[in-house]
Amino acid sequence: MTEPDGGTPFEPAGEGAGSWWWRPADEAGVALDRPMPRFASQRVAEDWLGENFAELAEDGVTAVSLFDGERLVYGPMPLTP
User: Fold this and answer.
1) Long-range contacts of 34-39, Cβ-Cβ distance < 8 Å, separation of 24 or more
2) DSSP-derived pairing of the beta strands 71-78 and 10-11
3) What pTM did the predictor assign?
4) What is the pLDDT along the chain (81 residues), one digit of tens a residue?
């Protein structure tokens, strides 16, 4: 997957990472256990999804939910082009 370019505040998951993240799910709505990046803002998270949704779908992700820390912001949202 591509990282946002141009100094966008993207951070891989881990210490110091942003609080925004996507939870991927399969066709049955079951959360997939796969590493997902964390982001500094909702806008950056949504931009990243826009750039990577096709690759996620190819990997079996059929929906995503956006979280800010532990708070569900929205979703599940289907990944359809």
Assistant:
1) 34/59, 37/1, 37/3, 37/10, 37/11, 37/12, 37/13, 38/11, 38/12, 38/13, 39/9, 39/10, 39/11
2) unpaired
3) 0.78
4) 434 433 344 444 444 468 999 999 999 999 999 999 999 999 999 999 999 999 999 999 999 999 999 999 999 999 976
25 beta partners: 31, 63
Q: How far apart are CA 63 and CA 30, in angstroms?
A: 10
First CA to last CA distance, the chain:
17
Residue 54 backbone phi and psi in degrees, to 5? -65, -45
Six-digit token pair at 69? 């820390």
> Residue for token digits 């990243």?
48
Closest by CA position to 21, among listed 13, 29, 32 = 13
